[in-house]
Amino acid sequence: MNDIVLLGSTGSIGTQTLDVCRAHNIRVRALSANSSTELLERQAREFRPEYVAIADDKYFNDIKARLADTDIKVLSGIDGLRELAALKCGRVVNAVVGMVGLLPTLSAIEAGNDVALANKETLVAGGKLVTDAVKRHGVRLLPIDSEHSAIFQCLMGAGENRFSKIILTASGGPFYGKTRGELANVAKEQALKHPNWIMGAKITIDSATLMNKGLELIEAVWLFGAEPEQIEIVVQRQSIIHSAVEFEDGAVIAQLGSVDMRMPIQLALTYPKRLPCPAKKLSLFDVGELTFGRADEETFTCLAAARKAIAMGGNAPCIVNCANEAAVSLFLHDEIKFLEIGETVNAALSEVHYTKDPSLDDILETQAAAENYVLGRRFR
Ligand code: MG
């Protein structure tokens, strides 16, 4: 079995990754968190990694003091995360939230590690850089996102056969079927209630705006070498069909399962092996019926922005991703309204400087430019 480095261990994906490690005695060589020192300490005492890192430097002294009686080495900041990602191990699980995951992903790949990727923002913002590095270093990217894990599984037996279409399913989020008028004044508490999945705040808001599906569309383009037009988004309200693939002959292969992230997480850790999983087994009798619908891109303009960005290519997906991160943060701090997230993202896409073939520096500059644009726009 692989040993792992786990970046983002205190979040929703991180804690579920540790459930899987517990179930299969997977050795955890390093853990990192952004700021949750109390939980990180508890995890460190249970899993006894060689290293922990805290992304936010402010908390370095706190975590260092908490682990003073152990021989665990404590690092901090983005350099700390990069150092952990570069430890020679079986797989690096990247479950950090947001663009901050990009550099550690690149460090992991350059060190020759496979990456189990839950951090979709890094592939969205740095898709070409990341996939080029993967090819150069001959490592594997194993998707953790349930949809991409599903697509990956649908292709596991495909051999040389290419797909003709990817059917990317979406739950539709808490506001499916609502009009712009109905969404004008929704409170953050309503947006934070996802019908099927319990997840972190950022991705839950992204699910409510459908930006999550937009990011996943871009992620699928890079992971599977798909053309954007080959990806069809289908609202599957029950989140039982996690995604599907259509082949040239019209055959559609879908992956179904209960709503439990431990299944895709575990496969990313144990691939190509399938092992018993702590997740509940699916009963189709309990599900009863499966429904399908279209996503409304006129109401959910974030999804339209993501589609436009991947068609533009270059740094456009990075602009959309970073503008969205900044806008979601403003929404969570009650500084802008729900519909303004989409307005902000679309405005950033037309205003922030476009580059066709961005380097890593260009991507990092784009990040700063998109954030500054969003913060500046708020005061106009
Ligand atoms: Mg997903």
Q: In words, what does this structure look like?
A:
Helix 4 packs parallel to helix 5, helix 14 packs antiparallel against helix 15 (316-332) and helix 15 runs parallel beside helix 17. This protein has 380 residues and is of the alpha/beta class. It has 17 helices and eleven strands. It has helices at residues 12-24, 37-47, 60-66, 77-85, 102-110, 120-137, 146-154, 180-183, 188-191, 201-209, 211-224, 262-270, 284-287, 301-312, 316-332, 338-351, 360-377, and strands spanning 4-7, 28-33, 51-54, 73-76, 91-94, 114-117, 141-143, 163-170, 231-235, 241-247, 252-256. The longest helix is centred in the middle third of the chain and has 18 residues, at 120-137. The termini are far apart. The chain is globular. Strands 4-3-2-1-5-6-7 form a seven-stranded parallel beta sheet, with helices on both faces. The protein has a four-stranded mixed beta sheet with strand order 9-8-10-11, covered by helices on one side. The mean pLDDT is 95. Strand 5, helix 5 and strand 6 form a beta-alpha-beta unit. Bound molecules: magnesium ion (MG). Magnesium ion binds at residues 145-147, 216.
